[in-house]
């Protein structure tokens, strides 16, 4: 007995479908065979009667003779049948067996014959309980002599043949069902065995063993499920690695300013320094504190975005003014590397959005461009209309570029192309999510050693466009 489960359900459903199909086919087949046999006998008798009627007027005289009934029996006699001559009331006049029982035939074939058609009746013969078929036809011998010819033939032989055929069909059906059972068990195993393997590996993954993989060349949906789970495990391993790298990186990022703050704090507490040294120490403490605040705010922003808690203050934004402010904020950092910042923008580009958050995006993009650009290079920040409904802000540099392998991952959270440059690896991830909150897109194109271009596509302000 198959235990409860998917295997059992597959086997039972498969057997049920095949059993019902076999039952219908065999029932229809046996009914068709029975009908064929019965109709063949009926057709043979009716054909014999029709042939006899064609010549009856030539064989019998207009006047009744003493041997007329005997001649009628001889003329219409058919092998393997009993011929009875009846009156229109169903009384037996004579029979081909030589017996003349004093009884009246009441089966349905006689009234049908009296009505002018060929009557047919199948049933059990009274007295012998034998299965028989009766075929009756009214025949007019001369102008005033009308009889009913009733043929009676045994159906026992036909029924025995049909019984044997039924048993043979049942045997074949049973053999087919056995084959189906074996086939369905094999089919169920081919489905359930991979699922059991996938379940076992999934249980290992649930315990944190993400290095385990589902092995086996499975096809179709099961193969897709196995591939998806393996991919999920790979992504979890990669995410865990990125998380570990982030923790290591952020620990370093936090420790460096904290070390500076602690060192200068202890130095200043000890006293004995002139005002210039005290001013220098306080400046370093202030700078490192700002750096810590920036790191914490970046992490908090990412947390808000992940939990859909970031609220936007939507208003009309003048893109040119926003980009000018962005360049002013980053100008001092660019000057240290002698990087020239260029702004190319029309005067009448307006969008609806959160100016502070969009400024955060553009600051991050320009800051990255400055960070990875060589000295004495240039960065172009431009804005242009793409269509009547969209505009684009483009940040283009001639820096170190990003490899194709890193380009697809650079917007992933915690991912850093160069960990030595510091940072949390959240800047681009946060920027992309802010852009998506404004119903926009962030696209990146880069070539290693030649530079990078980042394009932010945003919808234009509908009201301003209508005024224009």
Automatic annotation (TrEMBL):
Any one GO CC term of the record: plasma membrane
Chain ranges of the HAMP domain: 189-241
EC number(s) reported in the record: 2.7.13.3
Protein location: Cell membrane
Membrane spanning stretches: 12-33, 162-188
UniProtKB keywords: ATP-binding, Cell membrane, Kinase, Membrane, Nucleotide-binding, Phosphoprotein, Transferase, Transmembrane, Transmembrane helix, Two-component regulatory system
SMART domains tied to this protein: HAMP, HATPase_c, HisKA
Membrane topology label: Multi-pass membrane protein
Catalysed reactions listed for this entry: ATP + protein L-histidine = ADP + protein N-phospho-L-histidine
GO molecular-function terms, A-Z: ATP binding; histidine phosphotransfer kinase activity; phosphorelay sensor kinase activity
Highest taxon, organism lineage: Bacteria
Major localisation: membrane
Domain Histidine kinase: 249-462
Protein name: histidine kinase
Organism field: Paenibacillus borealis
